[in-house]
Each structure stands twice: as C-alpha cells, then as structure tokens.
C-alpha cells in the first residue's frame, strides 16, 4: 500500500483521470461517433453502417451547401461587427468612465439582467415589436416617418442579426471589460504625459491592450452564431437558412449520416476560423 | 532675469478631495537646475504635489509657475514637465524603442526620425542593445532607464520622479540613485523627486522639502535640514537626532554630537541603559532626568578606550552650537 502511495506517476494519473474521463466521454466520444456515422449509408427508409464518402460528395456537390455556408459566415461577420462595436463601447464606458468600483459592479450586473430570461423568450419578444402591425411600425407611422408598415423588420436577415446582437453582445462585453479592468491606469496617465489625446490613447494604448479580450469575445460570438439554428428559424420566419438549420432539417428527416457529415464540416470550419484568429492575438495571458 | 528661465514656483498650491485637504497652500521656489527631493511619510501630500506639478491632478487653489508662466491648468504635455511613474508605466505591447518614441509618435513625427531620436535617448541611458526588447523582458533597473529615456525625450525643463527607486532591490537602488544624480548634472535641468526615504533624499538632493500633514515642515539644503531641524517632526523623521526637553524648551541634538564624560564634567547626568555595537560605531542609550532617553553615537575607538556598561552613571556633554531649538 505504501509503495503504491509513493508511486508519484500513479498519483499523477489518478489526479488527471476525472477530467480526462469527463472529456473523453462527453467530448471525444460523441465527436468520434458523429465522424463514424457521417460515413454511413442512408436511404429513404434505412441507415446502414458503412464506410463511404457519399454523404460528403453529396454535400460538396450541392449548390445549397455553399449558399448556406455563405449565409452562416454573413450572419457571423455582421453580428461580430455589431457586437464588437457595442460591446467595446459599453466595456470602455464601464471601465474608464465610471470612477467607483461599486458603480462599475452595479452597472455591470445591470447588463446581465436580460440574461435572467431564456434565449427563446428574449428572441420571441421581438416578434410583436417588429411585426407588420407591431410596436415599431405603428410608432413610426404615428410619428409620420413612414406611410405604410416596413416589411423587412421581421422575418428577414435584419431580424436575425438584431436577435443575434441582442443575445450575444454580453459575451463580447464581459471579456473586453475584464481585460480593460486589468489595464494599469498609470499607462493612460503616461500616455497623456507624452501628449496623447483621447483618440490617440484609445488607438495606441487601450485597443492594443484590449486585443486578447476582443479575441475571446470574438470566439464566443462567432462559435455561438455559427452553431445557432433556432434564432435563424424564428426570426427569419423559415425564409433563411444557415448550416445549423441544414443539420436540424436532416435530423428531422432522420437523415443522421447526412446531418453528421454537415456537422463535421461545420466543426472543421469553425476550428479553422478560430485557429486563424488565434494566430494574430495571444490570449494566453488572459487565461 | 536669465536665472529665472527654468524656475519652478508653487504659489499657495492647495489640493482638496472633498472635505480633506491633501496639500494645504504650500509655497516653494525651486532653484533652477537643481535636484530637489520631496520627503515625507505616506499621506503627507508629497505625491499629490508632484502630480499637480505634472498635471495629473487638478489644482484646487493657487498657481504653479514654470519659467514665469502659469501652468496650473495646462495639459500635462504642454507644461514643459515630464513624469516618471512609480511602477514606470511602460507600455507592455511596445518595444523599448517604441516606448521611448511614444511622445514623438503622438506629435506625428515620421518613423525614421523618431527611431533615430529614441536610439539617441537610449544611448544616454546606456540601453541601445535592448532597443527591440519588450518591457517585460527587462530587469527592474533596465525598465527604469527606459522610463527615464521616455520622459527625457520630450526635452522637459523639469523632470518629475514619483518614488522612482522604491521598486528596486537595495543594491540596485544605490546604483540607480548615483545614475540619476549624474544624469541631472549632465542635462542641467531640474529634477523633482518624491521619496519617503531620508537616506535617499540626503544622498541625492541639493534641496530637501520635508512635508507632513499637507504642509511643508522645512525646506533647505540637504545638510541644513539634516543638521539643524526646525521641528520635532523633522528631527525624528530625518533620524540621527535626540529630541530633548530642557527647561529652556525643546531641542534637537545629533546623536553623534553627544559625548560621554564623567559625571563631574558632564552637562547632564545619565544612566546607561543599553550598549549596541554597530561595527564602525557604538550606539549607547542613556536615561536622563524626566525619563527621557538620549542616544550617543560614539566611534568604536572612543567607546572601547573607556567602555561603559548598562547601569553605569555617566555625564553627557555637547557643544552649545550643536543644540538646535525646535519651534514645534
């Protein structure tokens, strides 16, 4: 028994095993199964274990795939730009314009209040607001800004992106705020001492030092938007599609092999995007 | 007229934070091209004073004049001052050269010129070899020199240093203070240096300003402040003094000005309390009338030629001109 206890290699293995076990069962194994299934053969009424590239061939042969992937990137990019602008501004205001820590914490918590309700409810609550006879249209008409209801407010790409921005801006605010709070205030004084004005301080000091936070927020937003399917379905009124909807449609039709193949391609795409981004910014200091 | 070109002057400068007064209407005229130390315990207002001169803290009342010009409400970079921060505040994402050239970049100087000027500054502080490193690849002493170069590249008339040596280990601190002093002499500009270490102030300063409770307790040449403290606070803060209450009032007398003699020859009778050997000196504490303690710092030859032990009765003696009356 004592000998066992002295065996430090064994202790080490035992210590990592719970985490390794969790990751193996809940991450590696499911992905492995998806990979396996993506090579199976499917007909209208049966799924047969096999190893063939038909699913992938069909996926890459169909023009729909490219449109849908393009759409997914478009949503991700526009949402990223909007959340970044809003998130950076909010975080900047909280970190540099609010002087007392108490107020910073209070206002930060205020930002999280919308997250006390579920994603779906927050998304659906836009529908009566944006609809043809919704609050937005009737207000605009009563102000005389428009003569007849605007059609593109709901069930459009605008609505999808609006919902995405609403849902995911906080994922941008939190990491950026966190990085900004770590910036030594004397750096800003030093910049001012060297004659930098507000815009120069922002561009030459704050933005470079906030890059890791921006990158972490970007990873959150991009992966969430690229993997989403429910927002696109509700807010576009089933008129637009992204990769997530492609997968969910396949699943609804019990086409698991095809869904798996699409999922694997989406996974690789997201990994490629994040891998590219990480080459530009070192986020290790933030972890 | 010429002499006043680089004069820095504080005219009843006051800093209030709400109801608390951090700096209370202080007046001082800094001599041109001099090394001045603002000395005092923490919270005495010395840092606030420095930050007001730099422009990082607004002046509640009064005026700061540099070369006859009121600079109290100008932007930091427009004042002709430059500040070196306590933790150096180097930009962690910029190389040494870019840190030094930062103010030139802000002015819109082109890349080649600012690099050339930055390298010139770096050669002044002897750091040309490390020009392309990032700040966190440098030692504390090297970081300090980068900060110095970054402050000096703006060609300030007055360099403000906020506890510049406090982040260094004792060995480096002594070396860096020598370098600071040398640099001040070479550049011929005024340095204003905030510190809470009296040994640092004595080693560096032409002039020492001792602050306490938001006011200047005493200002003057380093030797005058140490040798002839005006108040009880200065005597105790500078160290090396006995503060004694005599029938004529409160007095300060330097510990090394106190001599030991026999009871008959002494001015005061005392009982030896403790003897501490300190290498070159022996510190002897004795109790005199009124339960006051007096320390005498004796050379080791003087002490061991006539040693005393705790409990011995001795006489204390000093020259009358070594006795300085305290006003408070």
From TrEMBL, chain A:
Keyword Cytoplasm: no
Domain ABC transmembrane type-1: 69-277
GO cellular component terms given for this protein: plasma membrane
Record InterPro entries: MetI-like, MetI-like_sf
Keywords: Cell membrane, Membrane, Transmembrane, Transmembrane helix, Transport
TM regions (residue ranges): 12-41, 77-95, 101-117, 152-177, 256-281
Example of a GO biological process term: transmembrane transport
Signal peptide extent: none
Localization: Cell membrane
Membrane topology: Multi-pass membrane protein
Family the UniProt entry places it in: Belongs to the binding-protein-dependent transport system permease family. CysTW subfamily.
Protein name: Putrescine transport system permease protein PotH
Source organism: Boseongicola aestuarii
UniProtKB/TrEMBL annotation, chain B:
Gene Ontology terms for molecular function: ATP binding; ATP hydrolysis activity; transmembrane transporter activity
Domain of life: Bacteria
PROSITE patterns cross-referenced by the UniProt entry: ABC_TRANSPORTER_1, ABC_TRANSPORTER_2
GO biological-process terms attached to the record: quaternary ammonium group transport
EC number, as in UniProt: 3.6.3.31
GO annotation, cellular component aspect: ATP-binding cassette (ABC) transporter complex
Enzyme kind, highest EC tier: hydrolase
Coiled-coil residue windows: none
All copies of domain ABC transporter, residue ranges: 8-238
Keyword list, A-Z: ATP-binding, Hydrolase, Nucleotide-binding, Transport
PANTHER family: SPERMIDINE/PUTRESCINE IMPORT ATP-BINDING PROTEIN POTA, SPERMIDINE_PUTRESCINE IMPORT ATP-BINDING PROTEIN POTA
Name assigned to this protein: Spermidine/putrescine import ATP-binding protein PotA
